[in-house]
Amino acid sequence: MSTPTQESPAAAAAHPERAGRITTADARLYGPGRSTAPETMTGSQAIVRSLEELGVTDVFGIPGGAILPTYDPLMDSPVINHILVRHEQGAGHAAQGYAMATGKVGVCFATSGPGATNLVTPLADAHMDSVPMVAITGQVNASVIGTDAFQEADIVGIATPITKHTFLVTDADEIPQVMAEAFHIASSGRPGPVLVDITKSAQAATTTFSWPPRLGLAGYKPVTRGHAKQIREAARMIAAAHRPVFYIGGGIIKAEAHQEFRELAETAGAPVVNTLMARGAFPDSHPLNVGMPGMHGSVSAVAALQQADLLITLGARFDDRVTGQLDTFAPEAKVIHADIDPAEISKNRYADVPIVGSLEAIIPELTAALREVTASTGAPDYSPWWTRLNRLRETYPLGWTEPEDGKIAPQKVIQRIGEASGPEAVYAAGVGQHQMWAAQFIGYERPRQWLNSGGLGTMGYAVPAAMGAAVGNPDRTVWAIDGDGCFQMTNQELATCAINKIPIKVAVINNSSLGMVRQWQTLFYESRYSNTHLNTAVSPSGEQVVRIPDFVALAEAYGCAGLRCEREEDIDSVIAQALEINDRPVVIDFVVSRDSMVWPMVPAGVSNSDIQVARNLTPDFDEED
Q1: pLDDT-derived band of residue 540, with 50, 70 and 90 as boundaries?
Q2: Which pTM value belongs to this model?
Q3: Which residues, 6 or more positions from 363, have their beta carbon under 8 angstroms from its beta carbon?
Q4: Which one from 6, 150, 259, 419 is the annotated catalytic residue?
Q5: Domains, the chain, ordered by start
Q6: Active-site pick, 7, 53, 88, 360
């Protein structure tokens, strides 16, 4: 690692808060890690050079007036591959998918005004799901900010509540430092999106560039090591518990701590539930895995949390979709809560043992402490607890009821995609019924195999996120599991995929409806289907209609292969045909039953103990073992 360059005395005097230097621990942020001699260039060139020094190889974006100065030197970069998307929202979700599939910081570009505001949804999505992402937007000239200039929008003000941090750059001399700080903030501590808004005048101005810059983040010091006393207390509580459960969230994946966690889980021998954001953090095939908890979780996972006497919560945030009615959640359990973000500790559920720090550091220490405790006390006997949970696993396995209308069961389609493609593939889901079925019926064996919009629940996420994942993992098969409603929100990015030879595979689970909304209308609104029919496969009365749109024709118009499957006996052959096509994207229109529902289900606002495995059928958690 090279020595950081010195700031000029004048710059140091003007900015005494920038005393911090980049340390060896930050070296992973800086690509080749080289020092560069001072060099005169424009602010735009400094942006591109900063990205190169930060190790960025792929960006997603659309040029426009206020970011145009930066697109000129970008064209000359020997390192950075720019992917021209068809909508800024696609750029943002692609950056998310890239980050989630690779663990690197995703990067997107947009111009000022509507270009920047079109990034609002991906920024909010990344914020909710702790995705490391840097969005670089152009802004109008500094001299006209506040005058309602053409395509001016206060994107910093708009984005501040939905990002980890925002920067407004009006001085070209600040660009290298701000870029380095943005990447550091996005990727350290609890990851998240950072917005860098750079005025057109700063992009055009002349500056002196050198690398690496100083970091001016004196107040930003994420805690990484957990408190040793708290870790020892947690180990004692685990050893003393009778019905412990590991409740793990997406923080396990963000911390790259899945191997360390597996060792801890196997040392303890306690059941594991992994949230929607943690699918793949612990293998589905592992005998300790009792499933996904929450509104559409498995009975065994929901029961494990409800009946536990100890929750060992690692990188999860007690989201309402997991807890149900909060004051009835896990009523007998004490809580160990470890998280990188101190704001999450005791936010929704009081933590009896709070541990703040990186799970990558905490988990091995907890494993060692647990071994030390059990060496003197003996291993705890969880066999009665496992007897209860195994009975629930056997009695209430995940499954589905065959549709009465003779159409394909959507669950079977998704299960067969997973079986045919395997755990080395990547699966990005939209939001709704197909998202839950993809979480339930595909086996996840490794982290970064499953991508979805968990916290914000953004329709239209799947196609651009799959595109980003495929750019980051060009040797993997990447599926977008989408609904016919979600698909129509961002399918223009198929053009981006076709032109750039990004061969994603899109499974459109086409029930001609906004499926999850229709399910709620069936269950809670007396089957009054107000504005949920989409006319993509069948008419409201059930007969065939002109498809609006015809997804096969649409795919072909975008330069993709278009396939359709309407019979159960054709599912495997159509999937096999899609897997053989790797020179362009593939879209499969799976025409499925619109009456299929996602079960199990905990209705909103009720206790998880009232989980239903079918309409009006609630399992008995307390049946004698």
Answers
A1: confident
A2: 0.93
A3: 257, 260, 261, 263, 264, 314, 338
A4: 150
A5: 9-211 (3.40.50.970), 228-395 (3.40.50.1220), 410-591 (3.40.50.970)
A6: 88
